[in-house]
Amino acid sequence: MPKVHVNDIELDYEDYGKGNTLLLLHGLGSTKKDWDAQVPFFSKKYRVITVDLRGHGNSTKPLNDYGVGLMTEDIKQFLDQLNIKKATIVGFSMGGAVAFQMAASHPEYIDNIVIVNSGPDFNDMGQTGVDLLKNRIEFLETKGLESLAHEISFNMFPEEHQIDLRNEFETRCKNNDYNAYYKSFVTLMAWGLGDAIKDITARTLVVSSDMDYTSVTFKENYVNKLSNARLVVIKNSRHGVVLDQPDAFNTALQNFLEDEE
User: 0.70 cut: is pTM over it?
Assistant: First the structure.
């Protein structure tokens, strides 16, 4: 797999197909394999790039340098290195934070953004955010990353027919470097766009699962702050919609992209 040197680190990525670029950004504690169900579908018509964000997968795992701001600068430099002038950036969970920050900080690189079970202010999620930060840090420090990976994976894929998805995601999650995961999580929970969301003009699709950790109403509230956004709700899906309802997700994204053409 190729790597590019950006921002004093190396990012591992895969590159498929030809056409307008779709850049797919994974969630916290995972890798570019979050997108295994999207790559073959979209690479028939688009150039599809998946990348391991800093601290994840086969990319560099710095000791101290983490945060959405750094990940965003990584992605800007990544696009520069590949001589990509514009892309549709699709971000799942933590990847959605990076997509939002790219749209706010570097709008000239954006064709569209697609935000998947994520939000613009991880530092302003009310009691849900407070509890998540406290409970996950406590869990990590007392039970370790392997136990956390088991719990997260079960919560995302609890049904009997999802056992393979559950096991694959658990393996990805528990293979994280502890320090990289911890610092990625803490810095993510400290991040937020605040009022800058009102300045985002990029055409935006927000995808929400009906059983995500954060409610459909939570997504509706920030969609209403964006100037050019639509919301799609996918039924019978939890946080990992790109994995547990790939056909419905792919159709929603395809419809959004084709509406522009």
Answer: yes
